[in-house]
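Possible regression after last week's pipeline update?

I re-ran a chain I had predicted before the update to compare outputs. Posting the input and the new output here so someone can diff against the archived version. Not blocking, just want to make sure nothing changed silently.
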Amino acid sequence: MIGRVPPRAAPGQFRAKGEAMKFSIATVSLGGSLAEKLAAIAAAGFDGVEIFEADVLAHEGSPAEIGRMVRDQGLEIIAFQPFRDFEGMPEPQRSRGFERARRKFDLMAELGAERILVCSNVSPLALGGIDRAAADLRELGDIADAYGIEVGFEALAWGRHVWDYRDAWEIVRRADHARVGLILDSWHALARKLPVDPIRAIPADRLTFVQLADAPRMEMDLLQWSRHFRNFPGQGDMPVDSFMAAVKATGYDGWLSHEIFNDRFRMASPRRIAEDGERSLIWLGDRLEPGRLPPRVRPEAVEWVEFAVSEDEAAPLGHLFAALGFARVGQHRSKAVERWAQGAINLVINTEPEGLAHSHQIVHGPSVVATGIRVGNAAAALERAEGLRMAGFHQPVGPGELEIPAIRGLGGSLVYFTDRDSPLGRVWEIEFDPVASVPTGPLARIDHLAQSMSLDEMLSWRLWYLSLFDFETTPQVDVIDPAGIVESMALQDADRAVRICLNASASERTLSSRFLDEFFGAGVQHIAFATDDIFAAATYCREAGLPLLPIPDNYYDDLEARLALEPDLVDQLRAHGILYDEDEGGRFFQLYTGTFQDRFFFEIVQRDGYTGFGAANAPIRLAAQARLARGSAMPRT
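New output (post-update):
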C-alpha cells in the first residue's frame, strides 16, 4: 500500500513511513493557523509539507521560524508554492519575473525549502512558444543552482499556452537543466481528460514530485472546479488509480503530495482532513498493490444495533420496540444490557452506569452508540481498519465475556466486528441469559441505517466506509426538505446485505441539521426494518398503539394519477399512511414511526425488486416530519 503496513517494498513501490516514497500535503489543503495545520499534518503521519505562499505571508513570525516549526513537527518542507506567471513573458515583465524569483529563493533559503513549484503562465501577456518557455526555465535553473534549489514546472489545466503535461514535459526536456524538472498533478491531467499512458515514457529522475487530487465529475469552468471542489483520491470520480499506475510505471519513488482546494475542507477540523489525506493514500496504494492489507471487508449483515439510554429512558424505548413486534429475549449476565430480537434483527438497550455507552448517553442523549457488523473474518477486518489508521477501541473485559474487535466510527460511536467461525458468532449464547419471550411482529431484517452529519464531514465518512468495506456508492441525490436541501448518498455491498445512507445539509433548519443540534454531533438518525408484508406491519403497529407518521391525502390523489395504481391499492396505502414508489425493478413501500425523544425514528419498508431508497417520497416524509417538529400532527413516541 501507500502507507504504513509492512513488509518493506522494493524501490519504486508504495512503501511504509521512512521508506523512499514519502507523503506530503500542501498547507492550502487545510484550514486553521499555520501552527494548527502543521500539528495536524504531523499527527496524521505525513512526512512532508508543501508551504503555500499565503501561509507564509499571513504568519507573524519570520520564514526561519516557520522552518523551525516544520522541523520541530518532524516534517520536511518539500516545496514552496506557487510561483506564477513566469515563462514566456515580454519585457519588462520578463526581467521582473527573474527578480521575483530571486526574492522567493531568498525566502526559501530562510525556510529551508529546496524545491519551488512554477505553474504555467495564465497571464494574457504571455507570448507562448515551447522554445521561449524552455529558455526561460533554463535561465531560471541557472539562478536556482546558486541557491541549491530545484525548479518544478507544472501545467495548469487553464494555462494560457501550456495546459497539457505533455507540453510541460517537452519544455522541461528542451530546457535540459539539472535543476529543472516536471511536476505532475492528477487533477490538471484528468480534468482535461488527457491520456495518462504517455506519463510512462517520462524518465523518473526528471519528476520533481507528484501531486494527487480527485474531484466529482462536474461540467463547469476549470478554474472554479479546481479552486472549490477538489478532494482526496477515493472521494471523487476521476480515474486517479490509472494516473498513479502510469506514474508508478516510470519507477518514480519520490514525494507524493496532496494539493486540495476545497472550501469545506478549509472550514473543517484540520486534524480530520489531514487524517483523511493520509487514509486516501493508504487506500490508493492498497488498490494499486493488493495484498499489503487484508482485502476490503465484505459485510454479511448488521448483527446488532446498540442504544445507549438512561434507566428512565429504557422503559419507553422498550415499549417502542415491543410495539414494533420485538421481544426482550436476553439479559447480559453481568451488565445492564438487554437484547431485543425479531426475525434476523437484534437491538440492544444499554443502561450501564459506567463505560463508553454511559458517556455517549450523557453527551448525546438516547442514541445509537454501536453497530455490530458480521463479516467473514473479524480479526482481518480489524487489521485492515488499523492499517487505514482508524482508531481501535478497547475496554476491560469481564469474566466470561468476549473481546469483540471494535473501532471508533461516526460521531464517537463504535463499529464492532463479529464472524461465524470464531466464538464471536456465539456472543448471544456466551454473554446473555435467555429470557422466555417470543417476538410476534412481522419484521424480518435491517434494511438500512441512515446517518446524519455536517456537510463538511460527508466526504470524510464516504472515504472511511469505502476504504474499509467492499461497498459501492449510489449517485448522490438532493432531497428537498421544507427548510433546505439535504445531500444524500447510499453505500452498500454488492449483495445489499448492509446499506448505509449518509445525509447532510448546509441549512441549519432541515431535519438532518436539527438532529445534529439535538444530538450534539453526527450519528444514526433512523433505522429501516424490512418486512415481507407492509400492510400486516402497519396493522400490527397501529393495534399496538404506535404513532405513525400521517401522510396528506393530496399525496395519494397524485400517486393514483401519476402511477396509474389500482384504486384499491391506493385506498390501502392511504388508510395506513404508507408511501409508495416503483422503478424498473419493482415496487417499494415505506412506513415511518414518530421520533423517540426528538432523537431517532424507525422506518418499515417492503421491497418487491426495488433497489432504491424512495428518494421521490423523501420530500413528503420530510414535510410531514417538519409539521411534527412545529408541534402538530403527531405526538412523539
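Follow-up from reviewer: compared with the archived run. Residues 301 and 396 are 26 Å apart (CA to CA). Marking as no regression found.
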